[in-house]
Design a protein that fits this description.
Helix content is 48%, strand content 0%. With 160 residues, the protein is mainly alpha-helical. Among the domains are: 19-53, no CATH class; 58-132. The protein is elongated. It starts with 20 loop residues before the first helix and ends with a helix.
């Protein structure tokens, strides 16, 4: 593989400019999601920057991310799940109707958060990953009980 040599006159060279904090902040505000250097070149040269493409921001939807973060903050799901996991490990987890509902709500919250995050990142959620009501028996329970590993479509052991 041979490298093409670029003449020194054709190669791009940095052009440092000293800015005050206020000037820098103003430039960053004006440039928005466009890198400051790219913005300056576009303004100076009438937007005729044909050599480089602008960097695409990884976040597709800031409103969707804000919604997800608000839901995470309001739900306390992680706190509930950690408490329940500790109780299950110590054998002190009473499984009553209230516990069942809190577990279902926590699982639902995690699913919603996952879907919002994937949407914000421009990804498509795989609808086969979550459960449907038609998987439940006449009592509304999944096969194997509400919290057993058998209640899931796909067991973790099968993934390995």
């Amino acid at each position: 593989m041979t490298a093409r040599k670029i003449s020194k006159s054709a190669a791009s060279k940095p052009f440092p400019v000293r800015l005050t904090d206020t000037e820098r902040a103003d430039l960053e505000h004006r440039s928005g999601s466009t890198p400051v250097g790219t913005y300056v070149k576009q303004v100076l040269f009438d937007g005729s920057d044909t050599k480089r493409r602008s960097v695409r921001a990884p976040v597709k939807d800031h409103a969707a991310l804000a919604s997800m973060l608000a839901r995470m903050g309001a739900s306390r799901s992680a706190e509930w799940l950690a408490t329940l996991a500790h109780a299950a490990e110590s054998g002190t987890l009473p499984v009553d109707k209230e516990t069942t509902e809190k577990l279902r709500q926590a699982c639902h919250d995690v699913l919603v958060i996952r879907m919002l995050l994937m949407q914000a990142l421009g990804m498509h959620a795989d609808h086969d990953d979550h459960h449907h009501d038609d998987d439940r028996d006449d009592d509304g329970q999944r096969p194997g009980g509400p919290f057993t590993r058998a209640s899931h479509h796909r067991r973790r052991d099968d993934d390995q």
